[in-house]
């Protein structure tokens, strides 16, 4: 029999006993207690469960009341009764007779101090607080553990006191386990999922959603909890974009604007319910992942109300599964119904829950069940009771363990925790039926807490569908354990998922373990917030050693930067640029220091740095800057160019620097200094100003760079520099120049000072000197006639309008405020008020006219646009969906943007102005001309010098000018003609000067051309040189072979046409060399002249040969009818003469080469264009068509061993090659057009050499003549058979006309001499009968028949001259003593082919 003592309540009415007859358990006895309505002290009397033979004891404080100790907490009452109910099941089991467990429960009234007091009273009741030396007897029951209060603040105090005593502390609520895990988690036992378990479930959910970026929202009450959660998420690879409390005034704005689309909240159920119904929260397009801070599951009725209608927010509830316990409910209600009138605790419960008094309370079973609400911690409390019960059973079964745990000490605590970690208990039929079959064991969680297994956590998604219906979707079930059991439901469709991915180069994505703090006075983000990527611009906003001087600040440059970035998408709306992209504009003040500029770039590329702006910290991650913009000058800009030209970085640099020569250094839309210098030289040449003075500001880097190029190019353009005047001093120089023209390379201020000195000359303003009038206060009309040469004005009109209206009120940028403060000497912030003493109004405007022409600002804006266009192209290529930055863009986008930007076009338009009075009488600049590399110099108006009636000239006259006395006539013979070609006219300003593209370009020597030419930069040129050389040597070898054979008289006849064709082929090969090397004046002339001349020779010979063979075929009626060979030579000379006449035009051209300024480099090019070059070969095209026509008509003529067939094939292939190369010539890029021509020359020449000379060279090299005895066959029907090769072509033609160039035509004399030396006069007489006497069908007489004749046989082979049938009759008798006959009798095979190699005209 066991007794239960209840000493709780305010009434204190003594009771003898209470019979719970309706309980399924045996009756319990309640000890009497005293009560008084006014005595609240009695609430602290403990509730004890003391069974008979009680071996073990657990206990602690429970918040039964609120802090006023009057209002009851019904859920705590249920939890105490649940523990008592579980212990009743355990203690009534006969198997647990030696392991009975008692309970001590003291009310804390939800106060931390009272909770600690009740816990200490419990420990003192077991003798724990007694000194060790005073323990002379065993305690009534052994202490197994202390139950922590379920409210967090009470558990926090208990943990700090009891935690150091090394006692097992058990918790059945998330609030208490959370705070206790911060103290001594190794001694903590939790029968409810800890916060680390909930975070683990959230990590599993994020993995299912394929997301790794969240916004962490908390209540701001537990900073340590937030740190632990953050650390666990970081270890799992989950990144936190924002961490904010719901109490922050920027909460809604921060969550809405965050890049993360998943919110992870650490809030209680009530806080979550009140937050999600907020209109601004429910309208977010995000997923809200909720972790219950109180560990309670949201009831079903509250789940349906968590999202209002038309909500776009999705909520994912991660909460414990709530298990109904019907048997406990029935037990509790029976106890309540039978005893509420006897116990003040139950009376208070009935009064509070059922709203009835002790005198009038009709508790019906149905009403009690309807109003019954099971506590959310009931199941955890029951598990806690069974955990200690089973632990007591394990200890009681071993006497040694009982001995160790006789008193509570660290050794016993270690034993208890060790046994609990290996505990395995399965609920049986003697236990509560709701737990039947379940198992109970513990494992160490990630936070070191012993956590009960078998607890189920669910992830339930709640959202509104298209029909605005509330939809619940269970995504995951997580069962706690050392190896947790996870059940994952099938995912929703892809379109319904919300993903949140942490992109690279984000400061919260784990790439910034160390952050460097930088000055917020030098780094500024326009529209300050965190961006995925940035465009960084470097400016010299301040200068001086202390970086406080803004005297020289050009405010138009940073204004152009932010205006371009802001308006880029709106300026080109039809292009849909940078869709769904957002990037930050970062401005950096380098204080005009190259060192600081380099430090800034290197820091941005290698370190994370952070600065504060607009009450937020902005962190820039390495490699997150996709492009740099530089408005620096001088050494600072030069240092940057050197860094970006190296391989240290792959990002693009945009500048407004005229000195950019290498596209790898920087991209500058501003016309280069060389281009501006060329424009100046063109104007000087046009105006006949060849003797000039230069006024230079040596401290101005932009002016100095243009001057250096001008100084280098001036001598080649016939311009002589008289002197260079330095304008960097404080006082203007005296007018000592003897020239009539002065070019001013200076700042506007220096130029104004120089003009004020009274120099009566023509002044040409270059660069910033254009704005000299801004520093002139006197009459500006006296400067009429001043010329200015400037890059084309490309500043947008809306940019000027914006500058005129912008003020500190509508542009709250700190760098802009600093400029306004410096200009107006007033303060825009309280910090600056100390310096200036007065406040600005905020309406201060910029003095836009004082900003001048803003040339650099316009071209800086153009360069930024080029960069953004390149970024858009790469973005569309790497991220086709255009839904935002993709991983491919982060990994390779910067390099791709840089390469794309290098191919962007570069401006080269330069405009020329004259300072003159307008219609309103006010002087101003007026456009008079322009220059570009493509169109050259174009004057739109005549220059009219002020106060002069005649044109202004400035000539270089020796001995005052010695610039051209040392010129080399042999290197530049045409210079004299250029100087003399200027037509002087007193009444006209028009000068006959070569336009752009007519400069003679020469190297110092041929060796320099071959060793330092730009052709060496292209590897394919070396391949072309090797091929050309090889083929040229082959053609020369053929020519030498033919000449040798002619000398040895192996080849007979007139071979002039064949040799001419070989010369033409060699000329084609040689011409190809000129299309490989750089285009100097000599090379350009050779290209355009030799190309047509070589083809004219080749095609002319083909026409002459075709005509010759056609005449030989048709004129066959007479025996010796032929056309004189000189007729064909006259035809060839006429064809060749026409081409020479056409080429005279190119030989007489004064200039055929010039400088081409392409982008950032200068290259020598020929001054004629593609169309001109093709038209120069029009005559060759006509000859090719004529040769194709003639040879196609002659293709069936078999004369001369079917040579017409090879002529026809060669003509057709050459025609096809010409069609191909002309088409390719107009379509390939400019740098490949010379290579196309070289390939065309090689192919055509090789075709002619192979088809027209290949067969003949083969016969010439493969056969040799041999003298043999001739045997006459008189029985032959057509006379003796004299031919050895291709007789069929002669048998049907008894009388044929013979070409005068044929070797048969020259046979009669040589043949007679050859045979006469052997056979005497008879053979000579026979020979004089003519070469065709054998073909006439007459039989030769004995005295007319030859004794020997020459036959051709293959070298190194035994060849039979007759058939095997009469080999015995006609035996060849070699005659070694007889010399080889070089001409054959009648007609040998050598003559049959008109000499084996060259045939008729070779």
Automatic annotation (TrEMBL):
Residues 1-17 form the signal peptide. Residues 1312-1325 have a biased composition (Low complexity). The keyword Disulfide bond does not apply. Residues 1285-1374 are annotated as: Disordered. The chain crosses the membrane at residues 1022-1044, 1056-1076, 1088-1104, 1125-1148, 1168-1190, 1206-1224, 1236-1254. CDD domains: 7tm_classC_mGluR-like. Residues 1351-1360 have a biased composition (Basic residues). One of its GO terms (molecular function) is G protein-coupled receptor activity. It is found in: Membrane. Residues 1300-1309 have a biased composition (Polar residues). InterPro entries: ANF_lig-bd_rcpt, GPCR_3, GPCR_3_C, mGluR, Peripla_BP_I. It is a multi-pass membrane protein. Residues 1019-1261 form the G-protein coupled receptors family 3 profile domain. One of its GO terms (cellular component) is membrane. Keywords: Glycoprotein, Membrane, Receptor, Signal, Transmembrane, Transmembrane helix. This is G-protein coupled receptors family 3 profile domain-containing protein.
């Amino acid at each position: 029999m066991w007794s239960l003592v209840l000493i709780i309540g305010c009434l204190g009415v003594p009771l003898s006993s209470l019979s719970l007859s309706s309980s399924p358990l045996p009756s319990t006895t309640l000890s009497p207690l005293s009560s008084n309505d006014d005595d609240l002290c009695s609430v602290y009397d403990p509730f004890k469960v003391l069974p008979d033979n009680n071996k073990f004891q657990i206990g602690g404080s429970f918040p039964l009341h609120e802090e006023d100790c009057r209002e009851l907490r019904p859920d705590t009452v249920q939890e105490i009764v649940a523990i008592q109910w579980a212990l009743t099941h355990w203690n009534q089991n006969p198997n647990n007779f030696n392991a009975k467990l008692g309970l001590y429960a003291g009310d804390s009234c939800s106060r931390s101090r009272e909770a600690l007091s009740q816990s200490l009273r419990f420990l003192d009741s077991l003798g724990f607080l007694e000194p060790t030396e005073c323990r002379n007897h065993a305690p009534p029951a052994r202490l197994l553990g202390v139950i922590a209060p379920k409210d967090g603040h009470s558990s926090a105090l208990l943990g700090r006191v009891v935690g150091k005593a090394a006692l097992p502390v058990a918790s059945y609520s998330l609030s208490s386990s959370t705070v206790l895990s911060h103290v001594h988690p190794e001694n903590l036992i939790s029968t409810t999922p800890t916060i680390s378990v909930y975070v683990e479930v959230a990590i599993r959910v994020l993995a299912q959603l394929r997301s790794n970026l969240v916004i962490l929202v908390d209540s701001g009450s537990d900073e340590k909890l937030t740190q632990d959660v953050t650390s666990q998420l970081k270890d799992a690879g989950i990144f936190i974009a924002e961490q904010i409390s719901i109490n922050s005034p920027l909460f809604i704005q921060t969550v809405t604007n965050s890049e993360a689309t998943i919110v992870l909240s650490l809030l209680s159920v009530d806080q979550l319910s009140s937050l999600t119904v907020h209109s601004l929260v429910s309208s977010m397009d995000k997923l809200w992942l909720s972790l219950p801070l109180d560990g309670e599951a949201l009831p079903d009725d509250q789940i349906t109300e968590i999202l209002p209608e038309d909500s776009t927010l999705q909520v994912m509830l991660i909460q414990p599964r709530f298990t109904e316990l019907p048997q406990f409910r029935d037990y509790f209600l029976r106890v309540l119904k039978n005893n509420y009138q006897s116990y003040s605790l139950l009376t208070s419960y009935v009064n509070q829950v059922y709203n009835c008094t002790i005198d009038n309370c009709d508790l019906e079973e149905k009403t009690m069940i309807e109003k019954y609400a099971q506590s959310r911690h009931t199941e955890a409390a029951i598990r806690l009771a069974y955990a200690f019960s089973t632990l007591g059973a394990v200890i009681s079964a071993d006497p040694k363990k009982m001995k160790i745990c006789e008193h509570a000490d660290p050794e016993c605590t270690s034993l208890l925790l060790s046994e609990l970690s290996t505990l395995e208990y399965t609920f049986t039929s003697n236990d509560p039926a709701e737990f039947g079959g379940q198992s109970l064991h513990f494992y160490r969680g990630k936070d070191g807490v012993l956590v009960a297994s078998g607890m189920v956590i669910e992830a339930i998604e709640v959202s509104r569908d298209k029909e605005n219906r509330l939809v619940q979707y269970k995504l995951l079930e997580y069962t706690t354990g050392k190896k947790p059991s996870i059940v994952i439901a099938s995912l929703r469709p892809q379109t319904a998922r919300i993903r949140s991915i942490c992109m690279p180069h984000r400061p919260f994505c784990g790439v910034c373990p160390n952050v460097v703090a930088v000055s917020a006075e030098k780094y500024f983000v326009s529209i300050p917030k965190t961006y995925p990527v940035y465009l960084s611009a470097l400016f010299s906003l301040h200068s001086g050693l202390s970086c406080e001087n803004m005297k020289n600040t050009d405010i138009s440059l940073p204004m152009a930067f932010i205006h371009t970035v802001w308006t880029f998408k709106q300026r080109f709306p039809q292009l849909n640029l940078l869709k769904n992209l957002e990037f930050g504009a970062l401005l950096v003040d380098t204080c005009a220091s190259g060192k600081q500029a380099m430090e800034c770039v290197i820091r941005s590329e290698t370190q994370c740095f952070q600065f504060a702006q607009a009450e937020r910290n902005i962190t820039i991650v390495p490699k997150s800057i996709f492009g740099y913009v530089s408005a620096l000058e001088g050494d600072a800009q030069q240092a940057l160019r050197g860094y970006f030209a190296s391989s240290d970085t792959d990002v693009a640099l945009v500048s407004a620097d005229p000195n950019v020569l290498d596209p790898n250094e920087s991209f500058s839309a501003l016309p280069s200094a060389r281009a501006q210098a060329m424009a100046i030289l063109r104007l000087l040449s046009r105006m006949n100003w060849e003797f000039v003075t230069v006024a230079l500001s040596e401290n101005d880097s932009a002016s100095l760079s243009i001057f250096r190029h001008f100084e280098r190019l001036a001598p080649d353009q016939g311009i002589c520099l008289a002197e260079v005047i330095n304008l960097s001093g404080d006082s203007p120089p005296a007018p000592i120049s003897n020239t009539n023209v002065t070019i001013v390379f200076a700042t506007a201020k220096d130029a104004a000072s120089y003009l004020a000195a009274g120099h009566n000359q023509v002044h040409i303003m270059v660069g910033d000197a254009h704005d000299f009038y801004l520093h002139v206060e006197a009459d500006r009309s006296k400067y009429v006639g001043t010329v200015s040469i400037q890059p084309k004005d490309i500043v947008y009109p809306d940019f000027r309008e914006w500058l005129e209206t912008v003020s500190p009120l509508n542009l709250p940028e700190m760098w802009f405020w600093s400029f306004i403060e410096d200009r107006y000497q007033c303060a825009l912030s309280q910090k600056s008020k100390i310096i200036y003493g007065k406040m600005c109004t905020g309406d201060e405007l910029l003095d836009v006219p004082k900003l001048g022409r803003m040339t650099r600002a316009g071209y800086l804006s153009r360069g930024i646009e080029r960069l953004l266009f390149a970024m858009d192209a790469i973005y569309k290529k790497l991220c086709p969906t255009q839904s935002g930055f993709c991983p491919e863009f982060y990994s390779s986008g910067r390099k791709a943007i840089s390469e794309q930007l290098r191919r962007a076009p570069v401006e080269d338009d330069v405009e020329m102005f004259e300072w003159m009075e307008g219609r309103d009488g006010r002087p101003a600049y007026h456009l008079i001309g322009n220059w570009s590399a493509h169109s050259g110099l174009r004057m739109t108006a005549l220059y009219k010098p002020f106060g002069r009636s005649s044109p202004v000239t400035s000539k270089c006259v020796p001995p005052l000018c010695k610039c051209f006395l040392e010129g080399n006539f042999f290197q530049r013979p045409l210079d004299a003609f250029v100087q003399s070609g200027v037509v002087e006219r007193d009444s006209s300003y028009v000068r006959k000067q070569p336009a752009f593209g007519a400069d003679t370009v020469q190297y110092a020597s041929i060796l320099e051309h071959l060793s330092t030419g730009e052709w060496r930069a292209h590897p394919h040129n070396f391949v072309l040189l090797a091929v050309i050389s090889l083929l040229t040597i082959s053609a020369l070898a053929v020519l030498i072979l033919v000449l040798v054979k002619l000398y040895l008289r192996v080849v007979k006849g007139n071979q002039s046409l064949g040799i001419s064709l070989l010369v033409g082929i060699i000329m084609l090969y040689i011409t190809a060399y000129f299309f490989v090397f750089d285009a100097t004046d000599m090379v350009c002339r050779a290209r355009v002249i030799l190309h047509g001349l070589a083809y004219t020779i080749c095609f002319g010979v083909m026409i002459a040969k075709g005509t010759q063979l056609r005449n030989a075929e048709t004129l066959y009626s007479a025996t010796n009818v032929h056309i004189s060979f000189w007729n064909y030579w006259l035809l060839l000379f006429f064809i060749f003469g026409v081409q020479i006449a056409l080429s005279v035009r190119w030989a007489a051209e004064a200039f055929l080469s010039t400088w081409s300024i392409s982008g950032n480099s200068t290259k020598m090019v020929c001054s004629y264009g593609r169309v001109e070059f093709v038209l120069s070969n029009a005559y060759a095209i006509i000859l090719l068509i004529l040769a194709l026509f003639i040879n196609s008509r002659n293709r069936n003529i078999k004369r001369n061993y079917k040579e017409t067939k090879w002529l026809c094939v060669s003509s057709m292939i050459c025609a096809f090659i010409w069609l191909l190369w002309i088409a390719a010539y107009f379509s390939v890029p400019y740098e490949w057009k010379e290579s196309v021509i070289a390939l065309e020359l090689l192919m055509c020449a090789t075709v002619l050499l192979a088809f027209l000379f290949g067969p003949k060279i083969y016969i010439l090299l493969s056969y040799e003549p041999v003298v043999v005895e001739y045997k006459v066959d008189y029985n032959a029907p057509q006379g003796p058979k004299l031919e050895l090769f291709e007789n069929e072509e002669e048998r049907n033609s008894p009388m044929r006309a013979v070409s005068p160039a044929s070797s048969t035509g020259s046979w009669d004399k040589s043949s007679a001499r050859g045979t006469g030396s052997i056979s005497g006069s008879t053979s000579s007489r026979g020979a004089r009968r003519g070469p065709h006497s054998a073909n006439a069908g007459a039989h030769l007489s004995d005295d007319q028949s030859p004794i020997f004749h020459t036959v051709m046989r293959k070298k190194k082979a035994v060849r039979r001259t007759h058939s095997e049938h009469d080999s015995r009759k006609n035996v060849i008798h070699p005659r070694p003593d007889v010399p080889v006959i070089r001409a054959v009798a009648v007609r040998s095979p050598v003559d049959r082919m008109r000499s084996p190699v060259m045939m008729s005209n070779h």
